[in-house]
Amino acid sequence: MDAAQQEATARARELQRSWYGEPLGALFRRLIDDLGLNQARLAAVLGLSAPMLSQLMSGQRAKIGNPAVVQRVQALQELAGQVADGSVSAVEATDRMDEIKKSQGGSVLTATSQTTNSSGAPTVRRVVREIQSLLRSVAAAGDIIDAADSLAPTHPELAEFLRVYGAGRTADAVAHYESHQS
What we know:
By secondary structure, this protein is mostly helical. The chain contains eleven helices and no strands. The chain has helices at 3-20, 24-35, 39-46, 50-58, 67-84, 90-102, 111-115, 124-138, 141-151, 156-167, 170-179. The longest helix is centred in the N-terminal third of the chain and has 18 residues, at 3-20. The termini are far apart.
């Protein structure tokens, strides 16, 4: 990718952040992870072609042109939150995705639907994902591991935190978070 393409991609991601609250690549990857989908299934539920989904995720394309697709993204964000807080089972989620796939209409994405459970409190998974995202926006995983290794002799707990949240799997970070709550 040349400098002009990199600049265009960065600009598209900034536009996505202003329109949707975050770059669509991050939003779609979280939906894929939270709902146990692959890209083809996500594209089908949203009503997008696989190439279009890929272009949106990579920042080659900035905007979702169809308001019905935007509404389906919002519905999937809400569903992912319900799955994360345990109010919807995996089987129910599959049925709901089929309903979402058939839905029509338009709406705007809301930040609160993706970060809270039914009581309005952030889900543990969301808190962990935010911590991971923040650490990973500051440094690459290898650099975080190097920093953790440097800290380990004098600050082992901080080193563990950096390893788990900065370079580990989300499931491991959730377990770490839950084990450190009073």
